[in-house]
Batch of 3 targets.
Target 1
Amino acid sequence: MTTSPVRVAVTGAAGNIGYSLLFRIANGDLLGPNTPVIIHLVDLPQAADACRGVVMELEDCAFPLLHGTVISSDLETGFGDVDVALLVGSKPRGPGMERADLLKDNGRIFIAQGQAIDANAKEDVKVLVVGNPCNTNALIAKHQARRTNPRNYTAMTRLDQNRAMAQLAQKAGVYAADIKNLAVWGNHSPTMFPDFFQAQIHGKPAADVINDAEWLQGPFLKTVQQRGKAIIDARGKSSAASAASAAVDHIYSWATGHMTGDYVSMAVPSDGSYGIPEGLIFSFPCRITSPWSYEIVQGIEINDFAQAAIQKTTAELIEERDAVAEMLG
Ligand code: NAX
């Protein structure tokens, strides 16, 4: 067992996703069974009691790897010395609220959090933004990075990948684990493109195994893109445990490289690959090359269908970036 515990901050700790995520982290699912953790629960002052209740429950699990907790609404303490920051809390869209207003309201939160992370976290802190609109929130936080590494500011599309894998597995009559290299391009929004052309089932192209182009280009894409809404309609609440699980997957893959070789979907700062404007937080097929090191997979052949889908999601992200331009100045 490593001796010094890793500090993990979770914002929105008192929320729905937080309630699943914290227990997975404390159980060792985020960083592996040999890494003790200290969890920083960061939420608004009015959520302090709820955070205290969750901490009591965490204590009552007697997790061997949980070496401490910190509850704070103060960002300096909340992000103090943390190695990993999971930014889950954000302002939800209210009735009649325009998307541009949502972007700006959340933008203010992520400027403050980005500044606090840059000033207080470990220099090589790894950041995952889950709170929506997660790509653009991550872009805003990344913009504050002076001391910390901008490449380490990422957003979550792993839930979209997992949803797409589940759909392909069901259709093909195989297990989710049999699906490889299914990565998502673009924004975490209904414009995202889960790239079934690259996916493989038992090493063969998924499109050949499934042999139903109409389903892949229609119902499959629609189901994945609208899955969040379908869950709200059925459950009356947005996806929480599956979102927490995807956040765990994102960090676990990145930290351990356990999927080395396979594609993983990560929204990361574009380096200009595939013509995506530099700096945009864009979900690419990524590969973990060694623990805490990723690269954007190069040389993927993109056909006309994929190109049109990628262009659409890129245009949306450019629009979001332009809507918060004054926060990136
Ligand atoms: P909840 O409303 O249950 O919880 C949000 C929590 O964040 C609350 O405890 C609230 O007090 C806190 N919070 C709000 N502003 C904060 C701030 N400035 N600093 C710290 N804490 C703050 O939402 P939940 O269901 O947990 O979802 C959280 C976010 O995840 C939402 O933005 C949601 O849209 C987003 N999602 C992102 C997904 C993804 O794949 N990227 C999928 C699931 C989810 O929809």
Note: Residues 158-321 form a domain with the L-2-Hydroxyisocaproate Dehydrogenase; Chain A, domain 2 fold (CATH 3.90.110.10).
Target 2
Amino acid sequence: MAPAESKLLLTDRAISSSNHVPSNYIRPVGDRPNLLDVESSTSIPLIDLHGLLGPARSDVIKEIGSACRTDGFFMVKNHGIPEEVVREMLRVAREFFHLPEAERLKCYSDDPSRTTRLSTSFNVRTEKVSNWRDFLRLHCYPLEDFIREWPCNPPDFKQVVGEYSKHARALAVRLLEGISESLGLERDHMVKAMGKQAQHMAINYYPPCPQPELTYGLPGHKDPNAITVLLPDSVSGLQVLRSQKWVAVEPVPNALIINMGDQIQASNMDMNSLHQTFVPFCNESNTNKAFLSVFPQVLSNDRYKSVLHRVIVNNKSERISVPTFYCPSPDAVIEPAEALVDDDHPLGYRSFTYGEYYEKISNEKEVMP
Ligand code: OGA
Ligand code: NI
């Protein structure tokens, strides 16, 4: 646990300092967000999941497939998480970050292996420039293994966040089923491939920033997991890369934002982009082949992508977002599905565990620790 007098978190510093971003948050000139050079005329698709339960299921599945292929990001409405549960989740998140610093610091740790921890920026152990974000990171599945270690303050934190995380898991599973079907696979294929499965949550807190043109809330990154369900508040900030342009994703009331992580990654990339995503495994390989991800059946269909996204901050409002990262369990073995290996598609990748992938990528790249 951190000593209470140290100023490890951004929140209080940001609130107390007025006009300037401290120098360790300032990006080099070529790596700053150009706040004006952003597409706001288009956005990502919005899919109504209501039809998933009835005769229109196959139409919704097609929409999901198409959004995964073309954008890697989409929004969903009628997603099944009650409005009250969502509202409460955001309330308790805000209350947590408004607690006195000494109270919040009880949860502080910069050790990414801790299953419950409050930290700041992105990956404080590897990054050179800090980011304008504090975050609380929680493991959520199986819930009973972790809920005891969650914060006790606000007093209803465990109950409210536990409730939200159960709903978020149910939604992630429904989406993975839809994604499996959209690829012509058995409905439970993806979920089964994730072994015992795991679910992590981040509660991101971006304080107002006096010079948002100099820094990021989160720099461009891809999520290393399988699928992310993001609950945004009403303040904009998320941008996704499409055709080399940053597209602003404006929050839509009652909609959640979904994106594919590295584990649902396309394979029809050239070797360079493949290397960018899977550098650690490529370096290790003596061949010219990268080691790919958990859902090679997806890969072989050459379709779905894990897309670069980032968060910019603003000088007016704090912003809160709550991503749920749904992932394979650390011991899940990642290897091509047998059915996909034939004379035309010979086995090209050694198998590895998700834990191994995650460990390497956290040490070597700017990814969510
Ligand atoms: C993340 C992320 C987006 C947001 O936490 O990985 O991309 O809007 N968050 O906060
Ligand atoms: Ni992300």
Note: The two ends are 18 Å apart (CA to CA).
Target 3
Amino acid sequence: MPKLIKSQDPDALAADMIAEFIQQKPDAVLGLATGSTPIGIYKKLIEKNLDFSQVRTFNLDEYVGLSQSHPQSYYHFMQENLFKHTNIKKENINFLNGLVSDIQKETARYEDLMRQTPIDIQLLGIGTNGHIAFNEPGSPQDSTSRKIVLSQQTIKDNSRFFSPGEKQPEEALSMGIQSIMAAKQIILIAKGQNKTKAIHTALYGPSTTDCPASFLQNHRNCIFILDPHVDI
Ligand code: F6R
């Protein structure tokens, strides 16, 4: 079962855990998330002036059809919110490429890389529908990286990042549940009252495809860090 920590400051706690890990293992392999949840953690990591020169990263997901330089791409998000403020090497940043025509080949490439370079710490947010990465309800536990059609709930939740009239992608490439579960340690962060139901189901519901985060119950080293607004 995941370890549950309620914290007044989940960003500081998560950033401290990640920073300590990088100090102990300078070539740490980090699994990273985008969205609102990790922004504060990345800010705190930047402030710590860590040496990222040997750190390697894998991001969870990327929108289909957006280039890395597109302002709405998750690659761009990571550049702006973390990478460009550190000394991470470009060749150590791993991302799914949402522009490829051969998705099978691209997702196989990513899975191979993660097998060769297993993730030490995977940072996760959670969707209001219980998704982790873009594994929407219905995603099986043995799923690996693949193309996913986003649920209407996720499209609605993420519409806040897009201006009116701006085209919002409806598909993404995403690590699967199995890819995430292979990480040695998982830190899931949830902030805000609107995450209460998903967290409750993930922790106390049955471990089923209805709530993909509930599969984390089966991980040996998983921590949920919740802010005081998650009412649990
Ligand atoms: C982002 C990701 C998603 C988000 C989730 C929560 O890379 O994989 O699973 O973590 O949708 O998003 P926020 O943090 O914006 O509430």
Note: The pocket of fructose -6-phosphate is lined by residues 33-37, 60-61, 125-127, 131-134 (CB under 6 Å).
